[in-house]
UniProtKB/TrEMBL annotation:
Record domain Peptidase M14: where: 30-315
Naturally occurring in which organism (per UniProt): Lysobacter niastensis
Cited SUPFAM superfamilies: Zn-dependent exopeptidases
Top-rank taxon, per record: Bacteria
Family statement drawn from the similarity comment of this UniProt entry: Belongs to the peptidase M14 family.
Residue segments, region Disordered: 178-199
A Pfam match: AstE_AspA_cat
InterPro entries: AstE_AspA_cat (IPR055438), Peptidase_M14 (IPR000834)
Gene3D superfamilies xref list: Zn peptidases (3.40.630.10)
PROSITE patterns the record matches: PEPTIDASE_M14
Xref: CDD domains: M14_REP34-like (cd06231)
Protein name, as recorded: Peptidase M14 domain-containing protein
Keywords: Hydrolase, Metal-binding, Zinc
Length: 315
């Protein structure tokens, strides 16, 4: 195994200070347009759905509306399905898979479930194809009280009134080759820790909740997505990204303890999807379809097993 290269910012073994973070920020450039790619699509959906601006992200000189799509016929007697994408802005199919779900499938659930979809939680990072926000903070480790990430705090505020009424939450992510080539080395450098090479799984997988596992729910999503794209196998240690594979394509994290987006509600059914867009066996269209399919499968399972859930708005 070759030794990892030294990250070009900071001193090995020393956490970044303000100077290093400023240097890192100066290297980030806009590579695509949130307004054209995401906001424009959302605007076209306004004729069929309600769109709410739940906050504004200001990283001078840039400013972005934080947008969510809601069922037009919202009913308090129905359960709620929450879909989040683009918590990590560089994970493209999370954003476009969420939008594809709304455009092609949301109407199928009218009168059965309230839908709340936040397709691009991190628009600044979307434009720069990055994991972090402009403060060098990972939003998906920041869903906690007094969050240091504006993106995370705004989404938590949006969801707070519904937190105990959400039946199912699907958080759409990707695992990419750039995780290993850029983002993990950057994380190690930022925190003053050694960079330890890992293995990127080839295929789709899910992250269940260690504290409240739902194996039947996770497997239903895996089986649906397997018809669209391939499922990631376990590595030689029986793991995916360092976690034990508990079922084909499924690992578990303590979602709330880690401050992950999928842990922000009391939903009995929750999962984090992970698509591998760099696979030679997957196209961008397949990646978007895998995300959209996972949402449909998750909602279908949750509605079919609604009687097993407990709490207001679920039964």
């Amino acid at each position: 195994m070759t030794s990892p290269a030294t990250y070009p910012i900071g001193t090995p073994g020393q956490p970044w200070g303000a100077e290093e973070k400023s240097q890192w920020l100066s290297r980030q450039t806009r590579q695509r347009s949130f307004e054209a790619d995401v906001q424009g699509v959302i605007e076209r959906l306004r004729s069929r759905f309600d769109v709410v601006e739940y906050g504004r992200l200001d990283y001078g000189p840039d400013s972005y509306p934080l947008l969510a799509i809601k069922s037009r016929g919202w009913r308090d007697d129905l359960p709620t399905a929450l879909v989040t994408g683009g918590v990590h802005g560089y994970e493209t199919s999370g954003v476009h898979g969420a939008l594809q779900f709304v455009d092609r499938h949301a109407a199928d659930y009218e009168g059965r479930v309230n839908l709340l979809v936040a397709p691009c939680v991190s628009p600044w990072a979307y434009e720069r194809i990055h994991r972090w926000n402009a403060d060098a903070i990972d939003p998906n480790r920041s869903f906690r009280e007094n969050s240091p990430a504006h993106e995370s705090a705004a989404l938590m505020q949006l969801v707070a009134p519904l937190r105990d009424r959400v039946l199912v939450h699907v958080d759409l992510h990707e695992t990419t080759d750039s995780d290993e080539s850029e983002f993990r080395p950057a994380l190690a450098a930022r925190d003053g820790k050694p960079s330890e090479p890992g293995e990127i799984p080839d295929g789709f997988y899910l992250v269940d909740d260690t504290e409240h596992p739902q194996p039947g729910f996770q497997q239903a999503v895996i089986e649906a997505v397997a018809k669209v794209t391939h499922i990631a196998p376990a590595d030689a240690n029986g793991e995916i990204i360092g976690s034990t594979v508990v079922a084909p394509g499924v690992i578990r994290y303590p979602l709330r303890q880690l401050g992950l987006c999928a842990g922000i509600t009391d939903a009995p059914y929750k999962t984090t999807t992970e698509v591998y867009p760099d696979s030679p066996r997957a196209t961008p269209e397949q990646c978007n379809a895998a995300q959209s399919t996972s949402v449909c499968a998750a909602i279908d399972y949750a509605l079919a097993h609604r009687a097993d859930a407990r709490g207001p708005g679920r039964v």
